[in-house]
Protein 1
Amino acid sequence: MDITTIVGMIVCIVVVFFGIITGVDGFAGIPHFGDPPSVFITLGGSICCMMIQAKGFPEFINSFKSISIALKKKELNQADAIKNIIDLSNVARKEGLLALEEAANSIEDDFLKKGIMLIVDGTDPELVRNIMQTELDAVDTRHNEKIGFWANWGGMGPAWGMIGTLIGLVNMLYNMDDMSSIGPNMAVALLTTLYGSLLSNWICIPVSFKLKMKNDDEITMKQIMVEGLLSIQAGENPRVIEEKLKSFLSPGERENQGDDAQAGEAAAEGGEA
């Protein structure tokens, strides 16, 4: 699990809870913030709007389940990916491109394995780039659909909170003679706005940002693979490939990048000798 996401969500609700109990009524004021009609209007209305936007019910369910991606900790180490590419380039430099087929058997990443097999099959470099880029774009499109789901839901929450507020105000204004109804109607009016803001800023928008960050990391990782494989196919020096791929890293990560290319190249040259 992604501990930062979990802790962030917990602390957010703790902050809200702290704000409630520090009121005049203290812990006795907690029931004042629970109102089923407000929950029904805000949550039910926004969910129904998201169902309308979905292509179908299965897509709606899959988009909703994508929150699990935000909660999972998935390590995508770009420096390690570059090291793997350099290792492959040393194999190709020492034994030839056909030797990459055997190396591909130990690779778990389907995207990288697909690129290696295209190279082994002697596919034209431009065609390899087009095939890999097409798959990369398809992955990005699928991910952005999930990101858009949460971002749109984040906009629906406050909107339906405002709808609930208007309903509460209308009910209150129509029953001004009954003083006992003013309080409950005002509660609905205010709590729907609160619930809508919580839904948006506590869950939906942070989840959409988290998914976008993970998508950007994965796309960058795949771009590294594409550039690295094409460089291997072109027969470039492993040190040149490493310097090219380092451009994807931040300055700090570049400094931590080891001398694997130089060591691997030395081994390759030693084998050739």
Protein 2
Amino acid sequence: MPDDANAFQTALALILGGDPDLIGIVALSLQVSLSAVLIAALIALPLGAALALWRFPGRGAVIVMLNALMGLPPVVAGLAVYLLLSRAGPLGEFGLLFTPGAMVIAQVILVLPIIAALTRQQVEELHGEYREQLTSLGVSRPRRIPTLLWDARLGLTTVMLAGFGRASAEVGAVMIVGGNIDGVTRVMTTAIVLETSKGNLPLALGLGMVLLVLVALVNAAAHLVGETAQRRLG
């Protein structure tokens, strides 16, 4: 117990003292996760809205697949990206393996289905309310997408926060494609695994506390956005 108490105190000292190693790991984690969520959102928001508005053969299968991919195991996503980016893979010539770029790609694959599936649900519900009005105004389906996405912006902010939470807490995929290289691809989750195995509990605990605070802030933000949306509807 004393060792654990000392490790906890040292972890707090690392956080409060702005330890360079800890700050660097946290900064890279935020950079990778935020980049992944932004890229995924640029693809997933219009994709989810399009699925909500258009009816076509096989639409049900696409929706089922998208929902299934929300639970895609991170190690599977990491393996797929690894095979794509390895020297023998189709994208090996770009040299992205074991770089932050590879980690962003892996997280995009994990986050995109979540944002797209939840966007489809929200836009489909919203379109059901405004369909007659939009039709009477002669608004075409492509033009309805930005309108509905803007009107659903509060709910979609919660969706984005959910995607960020998924990305920031992920370890398997980024470990496979990033390699956990010190100062290059080491993020909070992979560093916690490594430092714990090395017996460096203060740094592992410090990173764990920062990650917990980050997750708590994301959930608090999602709750506040949800409350704001409910007050608007009320």
